[in-house]
Structures are given as C-alpha cells and as structure tokens.
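dude i think i finally got it to work??
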Amino acid sequence: MSMALAGALPLRVDGVSKRFGGDGRLRPPWRRGPRRPPFAAIDGVSLEVRPREIFGVLGANGSGKSTLIRMVSTLLIPDEGRVEVFGRDTVRESMLVRRLINRVSPDPSFFRSMSALENLRFFGRVYGLTPAEVRERAPAMLARLGLEPERGREPMTNLSRGQQQKVAVARAFLSSPILMLLDEPTTGLDPRSKRDVQRFVEEVRAEHGATVLLTTHDMEEAEILCDRVAFLAGGRIVAEGTPAALRQRVATEREEPLERVTLETVFMELTGRSIEEDEEREEETREEARVDG
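look at this
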C-alpha cells in the first residue's frame, strides 16, 4: 500500500441515501391520483471500516445491503451523502477507486464456454497481471478454495453453483485488492463450499492485510468472520459493534445467559422481527411504493 493510502480509512460512508422509483418530475400530466413516492433503499447510512478489518453489514434480503455495496463500488451514485475509499470520493474519483477494490456478487458473470482457469487468465490480464503471475496465482487460489484441478479445466457450464462461486471469489482476489467487497458471497452454497470460502477469506486477509466489507443475512457466517457488524433494516443502520458486544448487550437487557443469545436474537431484539419476517416486510414495503405509496 502506498504512503498516500496508508493513513486513510479504507471506507467511510457519510449520510448516504439512495432512492428508486416514484413519479417525481417524470409523472405524466394525464395521470390521476396520489403520486407514488420513491422507495428509500438506503436512508442516511453512515459507517467507517478500519484497516485490515472484516466489517459485516447484516440484514434481510431487500434491506439495502446490495445497494450499499454498489455505491461503494462506484456502480451507483448516492442521492445524498458521500462515500470515500481510502480518502477517494467514489463519484468524483471513480477511476482511482476502482483500482483499489474488487467485488464478489451473488450472481457473477463469466465466459461460460471457457474453463475456470481460462476465465481467470483473461480477467487477470484485465486487472494488469502478467501472464506469469496469473499462471502462478490462479491454480493456487482454486486449490485453496477446494476446487479440484480437473474441474478448473472444465467449461464453466459444467460447474455447480458452488464451484462457480468459488471461481468468482478467486477472480476477485486475483489482483490482491486492498478493499474487497463481498456481497452475499456464500448464498446458496452447500456447507462444505461455504466453509471453504470463509476459510479462504480469513487466510487472504491475514496474509495480505486486505480490508473486507461483507454483506450477508447469515448470522452464523457473520459471527465467524466479522470483527464488527452493523445491522441494516429498512435502509437504516439500527446497531453497530462487535458481535460479542452486541450479544452481551442483549443478554444483559434480557437477563439471559450469554450463550443463549445469538446474532439472530440480537436482530429480533432490535427490529422486533426475525430475518424471514423482515424479508417479507421489505418486499411488502417495496410493493406498496411500486403500486401507489
């Protein structure tokens, strides 16, 4: 890491909001009835991620986690507020920011007719790696993620969902980014594949000092991986801290033994709903905004 980046926070999100939909100024003049309000996917979110930290943003599907990640990765522009990656504004200095980050999404895209290794070689060159660097790193990363060498030479269409996600993780870490954005990286994976990915993330963080922003609705995964977490509900952060401190806070308030309080318990205490109930509520809110507000 250069001296210019060494003293800056890997990520600062300051009062960020993002809305979608609604009539606004695009409402046709012939339309009658009340205006449809925009849906606030992210509403006044602020957070800071420290160097070499794995910071988790936890919440139901539809709570705004992916929208937040897309703003950090310069794919969306905030309506309000500011996002900085190592002191660089993601809107005004987007090209600089993109050199510092990489991202794993829940639905990664590949060249499907090419093998996993061929995909990694192609994207490695896009990231600026030399052919020799890619030849050395790609097989080693796939092996550490538990993908057998023979599977790495098969077309992507022949790989399972879990195997494809492992290739996506390897691709994202290929260039040794100093800020990694992991958006639901283990969703839909079998338990063994999930453990492989989680172990790999911890190892790479330890070896290369990468900072990780992780979004997930898997509370157990967050407790395994994250140094600190923030709970996102309805586009707003409702609590932030270490998993242990949040569990202790709820255990004390409830006068229950700490071992009986999980992060799922914390989420329910803060929101009044389970993750599943919150997902249903988020979908209802989005549908209300789409229909008529």
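The chain is about 40% helix and 20% strand.
im so relieved honestly
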